[in-house]
Write a structure and sequence with these properties.
By secondary structure, the chain is of the alpha/beta class. The chain has eleven helices and 14 strands. The strands form two sheets. It has an eight-stranded mixed sheet with strand order 13-12-11-7-10-9-8-14. It has a six-stranded parallel sheet with strand order 3-2-1-4-5-6, sandwiched between helices. The longest helix is centred in the C-terminal third of the chain and has 19 residues. This is Putative dehydrogenase. One of its GO terms (molecular function) is nucleotide binding.
Amino acid sequence: MRVLKVAIIGAGIGREHLAAYRRLPEAFDVALICDLDRARAEEIAGNVPVVTQLGDALASDVDLIDICLPPHLHVATAIAALEAGKHVICEKPLATSLADVDRLEDVSRATGCTVFPVFQYRFGVGVAQVLHLIETGLAGRAFAASVETHWRRDAEYYAPDWRGSWAGEQGGVILGHAIHVHDLVCLLMGPVARVTAMLDTRVNAIETEDCAAITFQMESGALVTSSATLGAADNTSRLRLVFEGFTAESGLAPYAPASAAWTITPRARSAAEIDAALAEVTAPPLGFTGFLAAIASGSGAVTLAEGRASVELVTALYASARAGGAPESLPLPKDHALYGGWRP
């Protein structure tokens, strides 16, 4: 396995990415950290060189640019990296319009470089269990699910001027927070066919939404409800997935719902069948480490197409909410009113 040289762009969430790279020295070598705030970058860098200009990172001999910037900078930075011949890891959201995803796809295709959208919640024992049960045929039909993203975000969180704004963060709880559990629903229950959404700003004095009540109908016919708020007393995420063969329920860990084994309750399948299948599960490393390990191994990495599906879902949710909660069907056509973006 060839060790990939990496430049991390942004030392905020980039701190957590760096920790994950350091757990995989056989696959990755962080060669540069780039941040306009040199002191912030040097705080985490150790012996890794620090630069303050993106151009210096793009001109270096790294193989991979890891984008950990505010959302409004993602697409332009990713395109610049691709055009410089670098593969790209991009924090969520990958983009804030389907038109921009089109641009990323075009440049990725033209350069032969790959884009990996970050969805680290996929990696860990809980999700691995459910995926294995589905793959072995024990799940049967998907019936329904309920998911919750109930987090606490107060004024301190919104101190950076880009947060909570349409210009900077580009969206609220459905874009920056619930996007993770919605990705898990799609991973485990298949594509979304139709959505309805009600969104409101009820918690903080910000531009973007911080509460959401959502329904999905999946292509399989399964029905899903999603409740999201940034006004909870604490931080919890929860998924409860109902299949023909069993019901699977996560714990409440807010930022790593796959970190522990999920509760699997048999229905049409016996406990012995399910226990035997679960005994076969080898869990990937948790979170960012598992996300990076999948890239290194070439198996199970998050794809640009999956990133596109996430952006399309968010687009549909904003469209439904602005139409008073009217149903919105997917996929969205290129002439859709919000194809070029959902900013008001």
